[in-house]
Amino acid sequence: MSAEKESSGGELSPDPNEQPDRRQFIKGASCAIGAAIGAVPMVAGVRVALDPLGKEGGDRDGKFFQLANLGDLKPGIPKKYSIFDDRKDKWTSYKNVPVGAVYLLKTSAKSTESDDANATAAEAETVIAFNTVCPHLGCFVDYRTDERDFFCPCHDSNFDLKGDMKKGVSPRGMDTLQVEIREESEIWVKFQHFKANTKDKVAIS
Ligand code: FES
């Protein structure tokens, strides 16, 4: 027997012969489905509220920003720089808002140049850039002056100055970013975000 029968107006009306507990079940199921459908936009709204800049402003290929000059950095001491950019969500554009931060670390690296006659070793300055976001679950990583390491307070992961994990739960080391030295001293960094809590480094914006 069907749970409901067609009324004269084409609408569905309860069958008077139907058992009450079965009608009750169908009514409850309808309410649950309705609530689930209603919850979808609500959940989406919560996500937008928590992440108002959303994905609209993101670009998986990243974008270069000039952050400093070589003379601004002391060798072996990381310095933090904020990144500002224009972003937009589905409704609004935002001008020059903070979108992340980067640690820059200048090191001296030996490069060897050789030819048939002789070989020379030269000191060359290099710069490493790290996204300040922890690759585990996205907390911000601090630089600890005394320990000379990077430390994530959320789950006690720490990383050496190369970004390699010394101790903790992060599935990978800190995320390095591409650096270019332009005009001999300008430090440009390609800023990107990466997927959290994966062994591999996967760019998401
Ligand atoms: S978020 Fe950094 S260790 Fe968990």
Could you characterize what this model shows?
The chain is an alpha+beta fold. The protein has two domains: 4-50; 63-191, 3-layer Sandwich (Rieske Iron-sulfur Protein). Helix content is 15%, strand content 41%. The chain has one helix and twelve strands; from the N terminus they run ββαββββββββββ. The protein has one helix spanning 20-50, and strands at 4-6, 12-14, 63-69, 79-88, 93-114, 119-131, 142-144, 149-152, 157-159, 165-167, 176-182, 186-191. A six-stranded antiparallel β-sheet has the order 3-12-11-6-5-4, with no helix packed on it. A hairpin with a 4-residue loop joins β8 and β9. The two termini are 56 Å apart. It binds FE2/S2 (inorganic) cluster. Residues 134, 136-137, 139, 152, 154-155, 157, 168-170 line the site of FE2/S2 (inorganic) cluster.
Q: What are the salient characteristics of this protein?
A:
single chain; alpha+beta; Rieske Iron-sulfur Protein; 2 domains; six-stranded antiparallel β-sheet; binds FE2/S2 (inorganic) cluster
